[in-house]
Amino acid sequence: MITQTATPSQATAAKPPLRLFLTLLHLAGVGVLGGIIFTALSGLLSAGLGLLLVAGIGIVLLVGLVYALFAVGWFEVARVSGLYRRPIAPLRWRPRDRPGFSGWIRALGRQAIDGRMWRAIANFAISAVLGWIVLRLAWGLVWSIAICFAPLVGAGTVIGPFGGMGITAPWAPLVGILGIAVCIAGMIGLAALHRVLSLAIVIRAKEAELTERVRTSTAQREGAVRAADVERTRIERDLHDGVQPRLVSVGMTLGLAQQKIDTDPDAAKELITEAHTSTKAAITELRQLARGIHASVLDDRGLDAALSALAGRSHIPVQLDVRMDGRCSREAEAAVYFSIAESLTNAAKHSRASEARVTVRLREGGVLWARVEDNGMGGAQVQPGGGLDGIANRILAAGGTFRLDSPAGGPTSLEVNVPCAS
Fold first, then answer.
1. pTM of the prediction?
2. In a domain, 222, yes or no
3. Among 371, 367, 372, 416, which Cα is nearest to 396's?
4. Quick check: is 213 in a domain?
């Protein structure tokens, strides 16, 4: 016995009457909402332009207009995807390419000219017009059915569905039957037209979506390469500036002890003790360096336990708040862990912070979100090759987003979002 699973397109094709009915319902709903929404958007645009020079009120309204347009576009993409059972990626807000207010402004500007958003809005406008016509045809259908029974109720003359010239009772059944046929045919045609236009306007954006995926994949690959370069440079620096001089010192100390072991055993013993202490310190530095490359507790016990151990080793007090109902992918947890570790290191070394707070949440949609905030002096900036640059590249390589807010005088906050399936 062979079992075959129907694909989404086959499932859709198997129930055309239901799909047609749902399409007409969608058009009727959009026909009602479309006028209201576009009237509100037009009013928001007019008010924003009119108040542009009045204490910045117009700017706030125009910013709100961009968010409102994005909401309309997001709704339209979700509506078409759900109606026709097509796997269309949801419309997403343009991510920031740099931290701070300037990054938000640039993201807002890119969103305002986003072609995929405007295609969705155009499809919503067309659907609103088609929906208005469907509503008129639905009323015409009800009227056509009603006048078929005009002779039975003894009506002499029947007024047309939209006013105008009346129809005498003997001709009413024929006109009603023709009206029923025309209205049904018109609604079916509009439903088919809506499908064609939606596939052409919204789902045709698949090409743009694939292009965006290629661009994102390229950016992630470049971020991974830069993150690896920054990490390699850090390891080389730590080895060259930390462990290597200490091991050289141990070798020199043991050499001196060897020279004095016969003539001055007590001095040689002190030198050996000093070398032993330096060796333990070197081992500790190597262990910390290895932990910076890979935290084994992260694989064994998860992100919560790894962050608890990290907070316990921190040079400044850390308030840890982790709420996760499950595990994410190894790459996602590692990216968030090392971002938090580097942030705490920066807070201890550079910001003169006396405490830090780490918050981690597993949000709906499979997104791992983390925020690190310290009460330091602020002024942190992403410098090429620096620790924050390493964080940004590592998060980008994992397919996530990175936001830094560090005004002069503090506080400094860093937020990262990483998809769990990265």
1. 0.51
2. no
3. 416
4. no
